[in-house]
Specification:
mainly alpha, elongated, about 5% strand, about 200 residues
Length: about 200
Amino acid sequence: MYDYAEKTIEKAYKYSKKYGFKTTSGTRGWNDETDAFRHAYMQADLTVKANAGLSQIAGDLHELEGDLINKQSSKEKNMDKWNNQVGRDIGKEINKEYNLAKRIELIKSGQMDDVIANKVAQKLNNGELITNPNDTRKYKTPSEKFSDEIREKWRNMQYSRNSRIQNRTSNNKKSSASGTTDGKWVTINGNHVLIDK
């Protein structure tokens, strides 16, 4: 696994240079565009060549190592986890775009590296990766995202329900107001009914 990681880090750095991403600290980057690119690239690569579950385990272990050995800040960890998730999403996207036979062909020819690098570069250029730990976006696990989606749907349902009730109430008031001039209200079997003229 160590050999795979080192080779993939080197590929990510090579592509970072090719695309002209900034490196503010060291040759491999740290808390900059090159760092963001490397995290997303490695997770996408692992997702395509193995699967998203293994990719997430490897990414989480790397972040645990960062916590224990390098004493990384919570902001740095957030940045890395965010970029790791974007990388896994890219890998899943590639897996949907290319069937297994085509993916194997691209991996064997080395072209898959270009496919992954291009997609990661697009995400970075579109501002979808975090390139600075002070970025205010917060990484959320898939279950946290799902919970947020459910809460948002519930809020929308409540808003929609309240709007319908409000519309009915205002329509009833309009009918009542117009009823005083355009018709006559009578009571039939205890029910108030507007009889138009």
